[in-house]
Amino acid sequence: MRVKLQDKVAIITGAAMGIGRGIALKFSEQGAHVIVNDIVEDGLNETVEMIKAVSSQKVFAHLGDISLKEQVDSLFDIVTGEFGRIDILVNNAGWTQCNRHFLEYDEEFWDKVIRINLKSVYLTTHRAATMMVERREGVIINLSSIGATKAHRQMVAYDASKGAIDAFTKATALDLGPWNIRVNAIAPAVILGTPVKKMDDDILARQNPADFGTPLLRQGTPEDVANSALFLASSDSSFMTGQTLSVDGGLGIQARPYPKP
């Protein structure tokens, strides 16, 4: 089987658990050297140990909040010091459990969600793109959400930030295309991890469509998203840019969910 990312250098943010960890593992298994970032130290260390158990490629951990410029600078210090280049950036870090009714918002809450979910993507993408331009190639993958196009109740700031990620993906793809830098996004939904929990065994046994919500009658896994990220990071998608892939089991195509029994 062809190894798709042999000796590529990849940054994956928000890699202490869930989707970010799944992508980091997949990329490492496929030959990439990875730099994993998060603010959760225990989870980040666990991700590093999991990678070392399945791959001989290099792995480095960066503990820091990449919505802050100085922390992005320290992240890229690792990249420049160890490799001198960046081939792939995966912008996965974000705040998902930010439920609050719009009438209960204040300016501080709004600014925090936008800083974590959107400003972080600008900061890391700008640094990565500046390095990628020198070599005239690179891949940037942004994690969007079904919330970019299908609204959640009590998640106005989150959905707004993810809608902005879709627009940011398209606009940066246009600006960076002449340097052969591809920018795409993935919009997941119903992916096991945080905050989506595995259904009880009795629900899984019954496989009631109304319980799953997805036409594929199952919940998604981090590996489902990681496989899509691998496709976008590899030469298999060399003529794709500015696109958003939905990885949601068909949740977003429904006019209405299955009726409850």
From TrEMBL:
SUPFAM superfamilies per UniProt: NAD(P)-binding Rossmann-fold domains (SSF51735)
Keyword vocabulary terms for this entry: Oxidoreductase
UniProt keyword Membrane present: no
Entry superkingdom: Bacteria
Family in the record: Belongs to the short-chain dehydrogenases/reductases (SDR) family.
Database matches in Pfam families: adh_short_C2
Annotated protein name in UniProt: SDR family oxidoreductase
Ranges annotated as spanning the membrane: none
Coiled-coil residues: none
InterPro entries in UniProt: NAD(P)-bd_dom_sf (IPR036291), SDR_fam (IPR002347)
